[in-house]
Amino acid sequence: MEETKKSLLDDTFTSAMTLTNSSVPDRYVLPLSQRPGFGSTTRETTLPVIDLSFLHQPLLRSRAIHEIAMACKEFGFFQVINHGISSSVVKDALDAATQFFNLPVEEKMLLVSANVHKPVRYGTSINHSTDRVHYWRDFIKHYSHPLSKWIDMWPSNPPCYKDKVGKYAEATHVMHKQLIEAISESLGLEKNYLQEEIEQGSQVMAVNCYPTCPEPELALGMPPHSDFGSLTILLQSSQGLQIMDRNKNWVCVPYIEGALIVQLGDQVEVMSNGIYKSVIHRVTVNKDVKRLSFASLHSLPLHMKISPAPKLVNENNAPTYGEFSFNDFLEYISSNDCIQQRFIDTLKKSSS
Fold it and tell me: Start and end of every Fe2OG dioxygenase domain (predicted)?
């Protein structure tokens, strides 16, 4: 059955990197209301940039926690500098990704799959076999924590891929633990509130390539969505990410040399009982610049349910979300169109 599905996918698969025509093929053209230029986009807005080294300085930690709290409430998003991941580790990861996406399509196709449960899979768009409109990206996704469990399944070509991307994956896992501690503190919880769950949790590394697009006003690299997990740590090679602000306007996230982006996911929104919101974001494409990104998606263990923290629920603040697991999310996206309805909206309890 799996071989039949793969054969069908092979027959219909078109890598975004092979689309070098002077116009966008029809299947990539978005309806007018979904195009990046439709509606209002905000002018330049100052987005939070936090010095993460403050977390390790006793006299400055409370300041960093406060800044994180404000960023989580206002945007569900912030950028971090002085985060402890060396520039050489970041550069090596981007180099390895570049080499992977430059491989012949036939070689990358050895890893292709439409099965969202696959621990390693190459693909295009969101889900090539079910998307009504396709999105202008190629990706390789792989489970990354614990690294020793998964790394042997990763691409063997280019030969440097496992080593270089592995070092970046380990570094982002450490950073994620520090950030979850800070976010827990900012909510008035013990800093180790989710410590055990995070150590046992999953990390999915989504490495994305957004090729140059001849008509970027007609297409998107990724549609509006929020991420399912606790946090996403994003590395981008150039500007292209946009987030939705409270007024439902799109804000361009600037490219800051050496910075990493932190986005709140659905698990933090549920855990905080809605005090913090997961950020809705999308990816635009560019006529002149190919963009690479590493989205390190962190989550509780596959089958572990998360629900509002008991300390944040009382007679004045009833739980406003049902519980869910990473596996529940995977089941949902296997049979539902996330563009039509966000997964987290299915968890919200109606107020009576």
Answer: 200-300
